Give the backbone structure.
Amino acid sequence: MNKKVRVRFAPSPTGPLHIGGVRTALYNYLFAKQNNGDFILRIEDTDQNRYVEGAEKYIIDTLNWCGIPYDEGPGKDLGHGPYRQSERKSLYKKYAELLVKNGKAYYAFDSAESLDAHRKDHEQKGKTFIYNWHNRLKLNNSLTLSPEALQTKLQKGDPYVIRFYTPQDEVLHLKDIIRGDIQIDTNILDDKVLFKSDGMPTYHLANIVDDHLMEISHVIRGEEWLPSLALHTQLYDAFGWEAPKFAHLPLIMKPQGKGKLSKRDGEKGGFPIFPLSWGNSVGYREAGYFPEAVINFLALLGWNPGTEEELFKLDELIKVFDINRVHKSGARFDPEKTKWYNHYYLQEQESEVLVNFFKPILTEKLDKELAFNPDLIDQDDYIVNVISLIKERASFVSDFWGLSAYFFQTPISYNEKVVKKQWKENTPALLSKIASLLEAIDNFSSLKVEEMVKTWIGNENLTFGQVMAPLRLVMVGDLKGPHLFDIMALVGKKETLKRINLALEKL
Ligand code: GLU
């Protein structure tokens, strides 16, 4: 029988999550859900020096905002907790000692200074010092000490680390779902520290012990951990445990294509790197992205469905995502594409919902003096209508005001270039005539107004441009905006006439 799928996202709380980390969480989540498995959050905080206050909360808030909450983790103990490694501290030592007992690891007493001296000495000879088969029998460890000397040192409490004993002259056959089979010559590996002199495990030991105890079936993580795979595979063997399956995800690359996407790229290019704001760095959420957009673009950074399709919501991703189709090579990040996705998901939102996002901006931007009807700001129906007319031109709610100010304020200035081109000698006469036509309309609907104006243009043998361009200019202050008659109908007859008369005075 196949083991139950259990995957984990195992960030270290050393700061905010980079979007690459969010993608790792997402792929884990998708894989868990499509296999009716469990998605676990484990906080890898064994390195107390790098611990950053607030980082764990940030990670959890991010998963929740993205809509990919964990099934098991801090605060949700389903029998495999605790899920913070700092709270599992007491657990690791016995596993390190078990390896020593089985000859798979050894105590090393070398001081930082002596190791440094060895390194320098090697450098001078143009060599690199590696703590492994090459040197270990010349160093200060339980392989070279007599049993008595070792006991004395341990009893005295001399500081030590526990190192993994890497075998010599072996070829390891590593397996990765995405990268296939990888062969590694053990002679190039160093005897990594598993347990530190401060009584804490290193990442490697804690990670393997926890993955085993938490019954993790698949390890899906970033490519930067691929170099650790040799040690991790050997550790599973050394413990006699069945290893999980591994999948190392490709890096996310700079927009230019070369090199890993960094915080600086975001600063230079003016796009977020973090899902939520952190310090001075604006996050995707605060920049006005919808979580659906972030999920969608992240899913396609390193994977594709094998078709041209690129719009997927979370529930669809759960169905179509395929870990076997994740690419080996880095995925180029495209900030423009993220906006394209947000544009799409903005259109998907009901205008009734968008009102709630827009209102605070509207309240801030609206100039009460220029507002032709200050009450409009409280009339949700009106704002819904405005949003419905302009949203297809917007990628973010923050674009709304720039696209819709004239629905709330009477334009008091006009685009000069347009005036020069469109405001002809006969324009005032034409607009005055239009004004009197409009005056007579009772039912001031878009269709009705359109019909009247167009019929009149036809009867007078005028061109559309002669009338429509200046009319738009007086309504909007520019040649932009949605269907002109929709604008006129929405602001209403009184305001439309006011705008025509104001322009006739001013231009
Ligand atoms: N704590 C590691 C990190 O910060 C976890 C790596 C892994 O998933 O094994 O990414």
Summary: The first strand starts at residue 6 and ends at 9. Residues 416-506 form a domain with the Arc Repressor Mutant, subunit A fold (CATH 1.10.10.350). The radius of gyration is 33 Å.
